[in-house]
Design a protein that fits this description.
About 4% of the residues have low confidence. This protein is α+β, with helices and mostly antiparallel strands. α1 links the parallel β1 and β2. The chain starts with 14 loop residues before the first strand and ends with a strand. The chain is elongated and about 110 Å long. The chain has 17 helices and 28 strands.
């Protein structure tokens, strides 16, 4: 029953593959391919290999997920290191363990004695944008299954916090604001259509603040008026004024100045017509006079280690007039060698219990009109209905590959020559491999940010030495000293659940775990956890990332390019680079 399409796994956070019972041999090649593609593009796999280690190593598909070379399967009688790992009081009985050599990854636990000669049993390693957690034990088989410390062993291995998985309740603050996920907060930020200049609408001027401060576009045109949301108090006050006019004020006017009360058949229609005209005028002014508006943010990830590429776009489309829309998208990667292999475009659901949320209980009937999502003719959504003065959030995903010899086609040194010294600091050089310039580029490694200047031109190479650097967690949480006389006295800046700065939101979403996760934001990131590459930083990889001017996906609305004239647009690139240890 496993899916044969990688999109069938998109709602899964982690997959556990137990090899002790042999059921895995019934999985077909198509199912393995779907699982491999999902894993390579951001999934997480817990691979448990114990007693059947030799058989598993002979399977071409599963052996490719080994973070090392198969050595042997043996029974280990004493495992004090594993007992310490699980904080166990009970002794672990003799257990079958699969041994690996030539480890490519981080060893998190060893079996056997407490000496350094014990072998690795838990290994965490990168696999494209995904992560493989290898366990050399069969946790679903005896004697480990009956071991009283198995629960603590699993918690420690998966880095679970008991408070997170023992409770299904969402944080109260997330429920209050209508979303319980970071993607919901990003969705709310993109659903804001404030007044912006034409230059900013192309994603150029907002980073410098010129368009917002002057209200003028780079081309000299006037700024577009934004969509204004009228407060309920304004609407209620207008209703009260209207009732006063058609009631006591009309009575007083006819009684005092006209003297004929039957003239109310004239004054009342006049007041009604003026009021209707005023309402239509305010409505037109509130919508800003633009038929459709679009806010869009793009993120493209490139893994120069194995050539995996993926792109994600979030967009919000607003229309002032009701209609049925034809939507399509075209990817434009800043590396000409990329070949797009998979893609999708669909509306983005709203996580949480707010209006229209996934967990909301609503009695609203579905609309009679239907739309269709195309999966075989590119990015397309057919006949998507939108009501007047409403918006629709969209999400587009695309996957691709660099050719197997892509590194040979790049100029010498493009991938970079980064080395980690004994102090876990980077040395060497890094090169921008893109065909476009990176704005405000930074290099992130483990828990350190290296700032590389204002702009990194295509193929430009820069050295890491003497570059300004700061702790990643301090940067993400805006940590600052609160006592000038004590440098160790510092505190994090509290996360704002109403934050609408898209750059700030993306900064935290792309490094969610590094920022402290839900402990910092009080919002989850389960729906799109794959965009967080914090685990790759922990595994010693370096990530070069920055903003670019050009969009990575062009959204077309009714066959017309909408991204070029978007209200606001942001595009970010992240490039995973290999790091060697001294």
């Amino acid at each position: 029953d496993l899916p044969t399409d990688s999109r069938g796994w998109s709602g899964v956070g982690r997959i556990t593959l137990a090899t002790g019972n042999g059921v895995w041999r019934e999985v077909t090649d198509e199912q393995w391919n779907a699982l491999d593609l999902w894993l390579r593009h951001g999934g997480e796999l817990l691979l448990m290999v114990g007693r059947n280690g030799e058989m598993v190593s002979q399977n071409e598909r599963l052996s490719a997920w080994f973070p090392g070379q198969f050595a042997a399967t043996e029974q280990v009688s004493e495992n004090p290191t594993l007992e310490d790992y699980a904080s166990a009081e009970a002794v672990l009985p003799p257990v079958m363990i699969t041994q690996l050599t030539e480890i490519d990854g981080r060893v998190e636990a060893r079996y056997g004695s407490r000496g350094r000669t014990s072998g690795p049993v838990i290994i965490r390693s990168p696999y494209g944008f995904g992560v493989i957690l290898y366990c050399g034990l069969d946790l679903d088989q005896d004697p480990v299954q009956s071991w009283e410390a198995r629960g603590r062993f699993v918690e420690q291995m998966l880095k679970l916090r008991r408070a997170d998985w023992m409770s299904n309740e969402s944080p109260n603050r997330g429920v209050t604001y209508g979303y319980s996920e970071m993607s919901g907060q990003l969705r709310a930020a993109l659903d804001s259509y404030e007044s912006r200049g034409n230059a900013e609408s192309r994603g150029n001027a907002e980073s410098r603040g010129n368009a917002e401060s002057s209200g003028e576009a780079e081309s000299g045109g006037k700024a577009k008026r934004g969509v204004r949301v009228l407060a309920f108090s304004v609407v209620a006050a207008g209703l009260v004024v209207y009732l006063v006019i058609i009631g006591p004020l009309d009575f007083f006017f006819l009684k005092r100045f006209v003297g004929k009360m039957e003239w109310t058949w004239v004054t009342f229609p006049l007041v009604l017509l003026v009021t209707c005209g005023l309402i239509l005028g305010v409505h037109s002014w509130r919508l800003g006079g633009v038929p459709t508006r679009l806010n869009q943010v793009d993120v493209v990830d490139l893994d120069l280690v194995d050539g995996t590429v993926r792109g994600t776009t979030w967009a919000s489309l607003f229309t002032s007039q009701p209609g049925v829309f034809e939507l399509s998208a075209t990817p434009h990667c800043a590396m000409s060698q990329v070949v797009v292999t998979d893609h999708s475009l669909i509306w983005q659901g709203h996580p949480g219990k707010g209006l229209g949320g996934f967990q909301a209980v609503s009695g609203v009937r579905w609309a009679d009109s239907h739309y269709a999502v195309s999966t075989d003719k590119g990015f397309r959504v057919h006949r998507m209905p939108l009501a007047a003065a409403s918006s629709r959030s969209l999400i587009a995903d695309w996957r691709g590959r660099l050719p197997s010899d892509f590194s040979a086609e790049l100029p010498s040194g493009t991938i970079g020559t980064l080395t980690e010294n004994s102090s876990s600091m980077l040395e060497g050089t890094v090169t921008n491999p893109l065909d476009v310039a990176l704005i405000h580029p930074i290099l992130v490694h483990r828990n350190t940010i290296y700032r590389l200047g204002e702009r990194l031109r295509p193929r430009q190479r820069v050295g890491i030495a003497q570059r300004p650097r700061r702790a990643l967690e301090w940067e993400l949480t805006r940590r600052k000293n609160y006592d000038a006389n004590q440098t160790r006295s510092s505190t994090n800046t509290k996360w704002d659940p109403l934050e609408q700065d898209v750059r700030r939101l993306m900064e935290v979403m792309l490094h969610y775990d590094a920022a402290g996760g839900s402990a910092y934001t009080e919002l989850g990131q389960r729906y799109q956890a794959e965009i967080d590459l914090s685990q790759h930083l922990e595994l010693g990889r370096a990530i070069l990332w920055g903003e670019v001017k050009e969009p990575t996906i062009r959204l077309n609305i009714n066959e017309k390019d909408a991204t070029t004239d978007a209200e606001r647009h942001w595009a970010f690139y992240r490039v995973i680079l290999p790091v060697e240890s001294e």
